[in-house]
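Morning!

This is the sequence you dropped in the shared folder:
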Amino acid sequence: MMSSRLIIALIIMLLAQGVQAHNFVTGKTVTPVYIQEGGELLLNSDDEIHYQKWNSTQLAGKVRIIQYIAGRKSAKKKNSLLIKAVEAANFPQDRFQPTTICEHR
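The structure's back. Tokens below.
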């Protein structure tokens, strides 16, 4: 049986094919990204979506997977395999956090 970390690595490799290249420089801060309308998608216990303004300066100190998706509940279903794989890997919460951001339409 495949380990959950291997599954995550495979999912990330598949998703990475559509990612654009950037000129990140080791030791340099990347240009901050701000989303004022929409932002971080949060689900409450009743499965209701709420949005919170978001900016990339909040990311310091943890390893992150950033998902930028459409602001619809149907998008949650499309991304569920990635989220399940991340949860199954049991990464330490003090050092790792997935974040979902979206445009509010």
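Headline: The helical segments are 4-16, 73-78, 80-88.

More detail when I'm at my desk.
O.
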